[in-house]
């Protein structure tokens, strides 16, 4: 069909597209815009048609004509059908422009009148298709959109390929999609121009599947259910949406241990080949689908004697993977296993689990299969499941422990000791550890609906409160109910007052109240002999005192670290280890902070403590950032944010820290976006503590982006918030230097100096050496702005040395940058120009660039390059400072040329200067041009001449 410039593709295509496809969409769009063609390929349901429609809609406004076809398997045997879809609507428009023989052959092929075939009219037909596309292109750009290229009839594919290979510079773009299971798309490229870009669509991540389900309205699904959907669908968006729809239509969600309901549409899609298997082979596959890690040995032990032959036949039919993976039996797609299990009758499922309950070697697996093979309450089965849950907990698999605990509760008879609700609460606490907060909350609400025992009710309230995360305001009504249930029991009251400490901090923003509640909770817990709660409360008290600048902080940390320790608390992100880390990093003891965190991170990973892992990755990223290891910090921060988003915990904090890391070593635009996200989340949660951190990150990103006024606006809010909640230690957020610098840049010197003076008093009292150095750096800028140039340069020189000794690499580099800026400022004629403290340094911005390069601080490096490009002319450097023959080169060019003189390869130069190999090559090209030479050999010759001289 012919499509003019007013064509609009349905808007519904784009929202689904942008979920997980942003990068490939941009790449494909750029290829089309530059005159190239695109082939999208991937398995069924992966989203090729959606992306194809959206790309077509994006480019349709640029095309004069859009031609479309969408082939189907049932019609692939009909010759010229796809060609008729493409060219039939424009035949009348171009027929008069074609030679008679070509017109006759084409009309015969497209209309079905006559007996045109490729064998009889081959050349005429081929030339007719080519001439038609050229005629249309003469009026303006043409876009050919072909979906499901694998079903294109052979005649149309041959004709389209002939024309595509001969279009040359004609403005005809092809946008096609083809179904492939691996990388076997090469043969389809024959129907496309030689410069076609092949783009493979891969599976979506769990977070992307969650976003896709939310967009389609399946918002009531728990995160654990979304995790199961992602695993079962293999990240395939079509499969995920079908599973989400089936769950949304099913009023009763699957119980723990049960598979997801697989809708009929997907069963038919993946199980059609099962009909070709004998019944016994299907039963063998059912046993494999019920097992966690099926192997041929396991199938034999479960009584499937012909497992080798039966699985080999299943592999031939595409039901099992054909690639060897040791002894494992692996389904070709997770959905095949899920659909096979869902299709089986209940008695066959129980039989499969019964066989596996004795065949499996792992006690956890045996217990799980025994539970799924048993119906009704059974105290022996419940006890075995509880033991298996404890074993899973010890192995660091809390999610498995939660699932087993719920199965144990289901098989526990009423009136038992422990009872069903006690086992449910243990499962809820395991779910919290695993980061499955929605599952934990649902279990606790279920217990509260029927439990009457105070201990069980308070324990359930604690789960409800903890599952709220930073959004404690949403569960404010739980606190008085928990206090009422606790009565006068000191053990229960300690639990409630510990959570009240968090409420005082997060909701009310009152550190003093939070500290008092924590101290009271620690006292109650000690009286009741509850060491775990006592340690948590002491750790909270220690962190609050540290941030408040309270003199008792070191003593409280010492109390929290005293023996006996509870191993669950020792590595918890709210435990004493975390409190000690915070004190270490605020005291500039960065190596000790890194060692402490590395050990804690290793332990929480071993235990499967998802939320603690998110926090410790973020803490470690902060440590690396302070140390000036920006690349490492960025990697850790991004990993923390990914885990936080997958689990739905700590997202605001991880976004905040990732913003700081992006501003230091990544992309400033992403830094601004993440900081705004963190601010929005903190405001939504009512969390004033993290709101101040998020605003500090936003202010810093604005400063790095060059928007000093926006930085002042954000950081003034931080100052007001921290004054209101009682934070007096300037090492907590370290935003004071940024605000003072931004105030200088906006001309508000008096406020900047006042901020420096007030903050310096607290920093001196607490011994915060790095904070004092950064304040001095800001004060040097104030002095420079007031004309005290020599004093400013001297102060900055001292600051750089102090920060280097403290190990704050990025702050040291920033000081060097400011020093370079001051040294390149125009002076009055009366000032000395060389040899004095205020004169231009021999390397100008080189030292700052070197330090930022060492830190991998890419945004700052770009600032140095921009400043160096606009600096005033400098005096010629002393001959001894620059290798002979290189004095006419820029800083980076001299460094690269000098390393070539030393014999370094391009790759070695890139590694030493922290730049790309392409940058080295481009720099060398400029060096050759400026020096009037042609190769590296000539640079080496210069080095030899220098040595001779």
TrEMBL record:
Residues 882-947 form the HTH luxR-type domain. CDD domains: LuxR_C_like. It comes from the Bacteria. Keywords: ATP-binding, Nucleotide-binding. Pfam families: AAA_16 (PF13191), GerE (PF00196). PANTHER family: TESTICULAR SOLUBLE ADENYLYL CYCLASE, TRANSCRIPTIONAL ACTIVATOR DOMAIN. This is LuxR family transcriptional regulator. It comes from Streptomyces glaucus.
